[in-house]
Amino acid sequence: MKKTSKLVKIKSILAVVLILFTVMMSLPVTTLAANNGTLNIHKLDSTGVTESEKEAGKVYKEVNGLYHAYLENAAYSAYKIGTFEQTADPVKVTYTPVSGLVDKSGAAITELNASTDPSNIDVAGLNVAAQGTTTASGPLVFGNLNEFSVYLIKETSLPEGVHGATDFIVTIPMFNKDNNTWEFSVDAYPKNTFANASIEKTIVSGADGSGDNIFYANIGDVLNYQVKVAVPSDIDNGLYTQFNIVDTSSQYLQIDTATITVKGTPSAGGADYVLSVANGDFTVDYLSNVLTLSFTDTGIDKLGNSDTLQVNYDTKILEGAMNEKGGLKNDIALNLKTKDKDVDPIKPDPDKPTPVVKIYSYGVKKLGDGGTPLADATFVLAEKNSSGDYTYLIYNSTTGLWTNASSIDNATPFKTETSGTDINSEAILQFRNLSKDNTYYLFETSAPTGYIILPNPVEIIATDASTDKVYDSFILNDTTGNYDYVAGVGFSKTIENLLESKNPGILPSTGGQGTYIFIATGIALIGLAAFLTIYYRKKTNA
């Protein structure tokens, strides 16, 4: 019997092991495994057509609802310029340049990041990892690229009449935020056009970037905007009569026209050239938040076919900027005319949107018993000074500026609501224009009826993530052009208080008949003690 029992146990264990092995074999592998990658370069005609407009015999790629034909005879080379390591958070990686990587001035490049200029990397000392020429039948494929590597992609030759693309950097693999995975097959879309120009814009200093041209800053910060223009490949034909760069910005962004610089980079190589107002190359007009750089005939004559223009200027974030839903935006356009044609305004490609600046913010939500929004809780905001003491703050809701209060009683009160609209309907408090990564303290100064005040302050720290949640409270309605409120997203922390009846630390209430009973009992006990003391003294003396 014992032998049979052991055999049954062994069979049971083997069955469990078999089941576990089957389950484990069926699980998908989601970690980064050893795997070389592929880069697919889609060289497309910039002129998109509809389904019915496609020409027979051509191969097309659908992009944003339009079909673009593949272009042939554009040559590309890939250079390995670095490697990267995965940290605990797979989105955040550490980049390490390859040994000997230098820029065009010969200076060593010691780090690779979002601000690394691919066009300034010297490839003379680098080996070509892959190279090839596009065809009209589909993408150019670079296979067997090293994993966890960073590559510089350069366009080395073009078909006649096609505008050149700028150099760009890719990683193998590349992280896809949409599905939270690393992809070893990477698609790239160099933006070239026949004769037409292109334009794009970003921020190169003064703000913190998070990708997708989203930036974070504070009121009073000065940002340096950079506009890059790909000059038409037929600019030398003398037909162009207008070449204007037009920047339409938020009312809370003030451009300093004295800081405008313009330089050109010849497509054929050679030294950069400078254009200026002083030399009569262009004029500057800035009115009602619209900046226009109008190039003169003199300036247009200095532009070469397929050259790249780089325009930089400083812009200050003005008071009140925290109230602009959706963030501070800029629209950029290139307006061209020829002697025989008005060209539609050229705007950035959809995959290269103009920058949006968000003001650092933080949201909290007050909850009552049962997790429901709780009204009538009042808070003040404070931060610690150099002495370690709390400095309470005053907030100007018009300017968005914070100043020091003389005491907690003079600080700005923030009171939760549940009967209003938008955030006020959810007992959400949002604090805007906070300093990045600075620790602030929320003191509850008044609790709703039936609740107790928090015994300690609540710490909050403004980050990119907390700011995104505040701005996610409103989403642009493309139909109406207005911003619609989005419930349940505008906060990073919930604050919940106990009911008085549920708090074990509350002392009994005083007053009423109960008080008199306690007093009478106390007097009686004191009297009894006095009587017994006198009685025993007399008895002792007797």
From TrEMBL:
Membrane-spanning ranges: 516-536
Domain spans labelled Gram-positive pilin subunit D1 N-terminal: 36-193
Pfam families: Gram_pos_anchor, GramPos_pilinD1, SpaA
SpaA-like prealbumin fold domain mapped to chain residues: 363-467
Superkingdom in the source lineage: Bacteria
Keywords of this entry: Cell wall, Membrane, Peptidoglycan-anchor, Secreted, Signal, Transmembrane, Transmembrane helix
Residue stretches making up the Gram-positive cocci surface proteins LPxTG domain: 507-539
InterPro entries: Fim_isopep_form_D2_dom, FM1-like, GramPos_pilinD1_N, Ig-like_fold, LPXTG_anchor, SpaA_PFL_dom_1
Protein name, per record: Surface-anchored protein
Species whose genome carries this gene: Eubacterium callanderi
Lineage of producing organism: Bacteria, Bacillati, Bacillota, Clostridia, Eubacteriales
